[in-house]
Amino acid sequence: MIKSEQTEKLAFWLLLLATIIIILPVALVVILVLVKGVPAITPEFIFGMPRDGMRAGGVFPAIVGTLCLMLGTAVFSLPFGILAAIYLNEYSQKNWLSRIIELAIINLAGVPSIVYGLFGLGLFVTFLQFGASILAGSLTLAIMTLPVIITATREALNTVPKAFREVSFSLGASCWQTVRYAVLPNAIPGIITGSILGLSRAAGETAPILFTVAAFYLPSLPQSVYDQVMALPYHIYVLSTQVPNVSEKIQYGTVLVLVGMIFVMNIIAAYFRTKLRKRKTW
To answer: Which of 59, 76, 167, 194 shows a CA-CA span of 20 to 30 A to 142?
Structure first.
């Protein structure tokens, strides 16, 4: 009994230590960004255009460009990712082909983003002649995000008890009716979480947009999906490495804007996830 209690205490402290080791670096980064970035956050900085070789002014074009890319990525990745996950989980037979597809999806989730950038450059920019544009960048980010969305959606679908499917089939419902009315409503919270995680990752990527859409500087906002845009991740890279004598306040302020956008996305996802989970009856 004493040994069991000692083991329990040891496990508790080891788990607590692991949690602190994970949280502490993240907390320090957030505190650093807040301390150095908050002084730069003003209406002029958020809604202004870059001036003086991007050493002054605001980041509004980069914010708009990032939002355009996120919207395009969501449009191309969410429908195809969720539908593919539903097919693989609810319709496909478990054979060697489906196992190969599943293995490919898992491996694609670990491919470096620079590879997706080169793929987007070769296919969308050069072969399909979209040029460096919002369309090419969104498609590249969508392909990079698809494995995450598919995997997360399948995990969410698997959390729905098999009894729900069995009862639905026993009442004469078709497979699609079962998915539509018994499975999806209960899997939506997990699907939202996975989708937001995938889009959040895409929002912070630099390598894929470096080859497909990002511009060093643009004096105006985009007018069509075939225009280049400034984007916050690439803008941070430019301010840190390509533009001399940039105020540290502007650099960290831009980082804070990007982190804030991702934070808002996660807050919105958490709100809808919590609201939908309350509807569950199991």
So the answer is: 59
